[in-house]
Amino acid sequence: MKKISFIVFLLFFSIGKAATIQVGANFPVKKIKQALALAKDGDTILVDSGIYKEGTILINKKIYFIGKNFPVLDGQHKKEVLSINANDVVVKGFKVINSGHAALNDPCGIRVYDKNNVTIQGNILDNNFFGIYLQNSTNCIVKNNIIKAYGKAEQLIGNGIHCWKSSNLQIIGNKITGHRDGIYFEFVTQSVIWRNISNNNVRYGLHFMFSNDDAYITNVFKNNGAGVAVMFTKNVKMFNNYFEENWGDSAYGLLLKEIADSYIFNNRFARNTSGIYMEGTSRIKVEKNSFESNGWGMKIQASCMENEIVNNNFLKNTFDISTNGSLVLNTFNANYWDKYEGYDLDKDGMGDVPYHPLSLFAVLTENTPSSMLLYRSFMITLLDKSEKVLPSITPDNFVDNKPLMKSLPL
Amino acid sequence: MKKIVLLFSSLLIISCVSNEPKPIKLNVDSCEFCKMTISNGKFGAELLTKKGRYYKFDDLSCMMHYTKENTNVQVQSFFVNDYAKDNTLIPAEQCFYLHGGSINSPMRGNFAAFASDKDQDDFQKQLNAKMLTWEQVFTMY
């Protein structure tokens, strides 16, 4: 009788409490797939350090999948390494390397298929085609991962963190280098990208397509092939980011194409070919940003309207603003322009003479790029000065009526 | 006299617009229509004008949109990437096309072009896509 009750007690115990299955060379369970077969919902699989070459590992139960001292999951350049096909899975502390490399089915380091509440945290991903791929997933967290690949210009490579048709995601504190796009959002809504560092990627540091109602805050995008692109999107908030050193003919700190109702606040654009390039952009507020040492501070195409550019610093740019048309439907107000030469007699901190940020030469080079050869020649400087007094080629309503006398402390 | 004629006629030939595509530099060139950097050598497209200017696109749909929006651009020829190869441009009029299915192109035009109908056949099963001709693609936009 005692024995039976003990067994019953044990049974209850094993049902009621989640078990921990240890995997490793020194444990009875040597293989991860073996452990996954044994595990029930709610169990923890604790993987000891070592190298595991088991092809594609498929998680289809609600488990905690934890690595100790970064066990290596090696895909041996064949297939996807880790597939997650269950809700509420936690993946933590693994080193995922060498996924397959194919254009057709996009093999990944870690991929989530149509699931909710998955957490991918503190992993190292090295040399995968795609890094982390969230497909049709909600409420997922991708946090503190280090994602590295070795993409070259003439070679096909996937994105670092690729999110497709998802919502309510948190992408926090990841470091991404060497992929095609560091972070890629397509049809992703209500999500936040916070404190990531995305640099030296082949194409974009961050790429938004058709993704509404998102925010990206305090990220660093540095030295990427073409900067950051936000396209075909509305309601995006871009706060406190660094856009730096994106050089090249088609490289922009921030490329805005077909975007509306967004807010660009307190970012820093430094040493880019163009700080911001805008096309088909409307109802955007650009406030308290710093544009420093860029070729062009902002390129605003004639297709942009109702944008407000307020309280920004324009410092040491070759050209502060450039445009390709004569129609001006955007407003500039109370910015600091280091090229401003006016005075402030009433001492209210605002210049008494309006400032025309569009120089004659910026318009000339927009139409004939090769005229750049004549930059800083005596004749051009003379023409620029006369244009400032009597605007003829540049649109005369392209004007900041209250330019600041001192730069803002940003 | 003959020599001069020969010289001039050869000059004329050289100065004429050639009908060869210009290779796309992946991750360097950008799309004329959507401004995105071209990074996938399976979906790229190129347009050659009668004046001899090349415009590059990252997606066949971008090229179509561009042509329909800029009617003042006189087109000499269209080129598209062969889906079965890596970044190889071929004349668009003679291509065989697939549309939809599991094709995922950068701007969601979702066209794949092939130099041979055999390739089109092979990939049709794999991608579960619809077969089209150039005329059908052209009239879609």
What would you say this structure looks like, in words?
The complex is a heterodimer of chains A (410) and B (141). By secondary structure, chain A is mostly beta strands. Chain A folds into two domains: 19-201, 3 Solenoid (Pectate Lyase C-like); 226-358 and 395-410, no CATH class. Chain A has four helices and 37 strands. In chain A, the strands form two sheets. Chain A has a 24-stranded parallel β-sheet that branches. A 13-stranded parallel β-sheet of chain A has the order 3-6-9-12-15-18-21-24-27-29-31-34-37, with no helix packed on it. The longest helix of chain A has 15 residues, at 2-16. Chain A is elongated and about 85 Å long. Residues 8-13 of chain A have low confidence and may be disordered. With 141 residues, chain B is an alpha+beta fold. Chain B has one domain. In chain B, 30% of the residues lie in helices and 21% in strands. Chain B has four helices and seven strands, in the order αββαββββαβα. Chain B has helices at 2-15, 60-69, 117-127, 134-140; strands at residues 45-49, 54-57, 75-81, 89-91, 96-99, 111-114, 130-132. In chain B, the strands form two sheets. A four-stranded antiparallel β-sheet of chain B has the order 2-1-3-4. In chain B, 43% of the residues are buried. The model of chain B has no long low-confidence stretch (mean pLDDT 87). The interface between A and B is medium-sized, with 21 and 16 residues.
